[in-house]
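Design job #97: recover the sequence.
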């Protein structure tokens, strides 16, 4: 049976959208065996999709060869059970190259990240993402964050572009997102997908869902999948009591800990994976490892999170 198109597979996910970390061995090279185990574990724990080599997966730190190897490993580890969406970024030529590499490696779609370094106008951003979409047959999700911030009019144009199926927000401007959702709904009726891509997106997902952004990325699923699943299920069923208990007791303290260091949205997650028994190595520069005290606090928070699940039974 041919799998349904990516948009249909993502529109009503059965579990969290999983953004695996990239595993490195003791010598700093990519460890594909551990990475594959990490991806398989996520799928077995209920992930609805795997977003490989994206922000949490340190796309910025991978060579093109490492990127291709990791995407292939993710595709192999999922075995077609869930879709694999690969990151793509940098300038237009390189982003298009990464898009083609991801397609060759068997990915089901792309998360197109901001262009490198430059702050472009709307005309340039639109041209960039249209060229990336034209470079591959893979469906593309555009990621708004940092130096790639869009007007509602530009997102309408993106939604009209062949191959672009969704929009992920990592900016956090709810007023802008509401206007984007409204403009696309008015001008391009259909099933355009919206994702909350803020770090620890669970913390803000109640607000995003209220303005028409139903999907979100889950980095904490990497190391506390049961907690991420419980929160996802609470949102799906309208169980506000469970959602608020997890927000108050786990997610808010985690966000406050994450704010203690630059780059902790990646390195603290990777430390959490190691704490749960899978040695995925340290982050690559320019990111840095959390302090010993912060790792200790993370371990205590993980224990508290699982105790909250037991309290809710």
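Job complete. Output follows.
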């Amino acid at each position: 049976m041919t799998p349904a198109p990516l948009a249909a597979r993502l529109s009503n996910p059965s579990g969290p959208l999983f953004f695996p970390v990239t595993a490195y061995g003791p010598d700093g090279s990519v460890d594909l065996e551990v990475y594959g185990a990490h991806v398989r574990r996520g799928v077995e724990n209920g992930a609805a999709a795997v977003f490989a080599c994206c922000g949490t997966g340190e796309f910025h730190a991978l060579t093109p060869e490492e990127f291709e190897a990791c995407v292939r490993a993710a595709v192999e580890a999922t075995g077609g059970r869930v879709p694999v969406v690969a990151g793509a970024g940098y300038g237009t030529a390189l982003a298009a190259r990464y898009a083609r590499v991801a397609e060759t490696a068997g990915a089901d779609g792309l998360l197109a990240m901001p262009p490198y370094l430059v702050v472009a106008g709307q005309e340039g951003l639109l041209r960039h993402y249209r060229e990336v979409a034209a470079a591959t047959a893979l469906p593309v999700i555009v990621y708004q964050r940092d130096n790639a911030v869009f007007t509602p009019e530009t997102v309408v144009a993106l939604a009209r572009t062949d191959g672009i199926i969704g929009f992920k927000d990592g900016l956090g401007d709810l007023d802008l997102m509401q206007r984007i959702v409204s403009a696309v709904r008015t001008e391009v009726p259909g099933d355009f997908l919206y994702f909350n891509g803020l770090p620890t997106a669970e913390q803000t997902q109640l607000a995003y869902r209220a303005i028409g952004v139903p999907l979100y990325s889950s980095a904490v699923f990497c190391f506390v999948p049961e907690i991420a699943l419980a929160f996802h299920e609470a949102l799906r069923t309208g169980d506000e009591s469970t959602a608020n208990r997890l927000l108050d007791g786990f997610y808010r303290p985690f966000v406050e800990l994450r704010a203690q260091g630059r780059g902790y949205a990646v390195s603290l997650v990777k430390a959490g994976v190691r704490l749960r028994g899978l040695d995925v190595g340290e982050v690559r520069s320019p990111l840095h490892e959390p302090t010993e005290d912060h790792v200790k606090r993370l371990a205590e928070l993980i224990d508290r999170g699982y105790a909250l699940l037991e309290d809710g039974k």
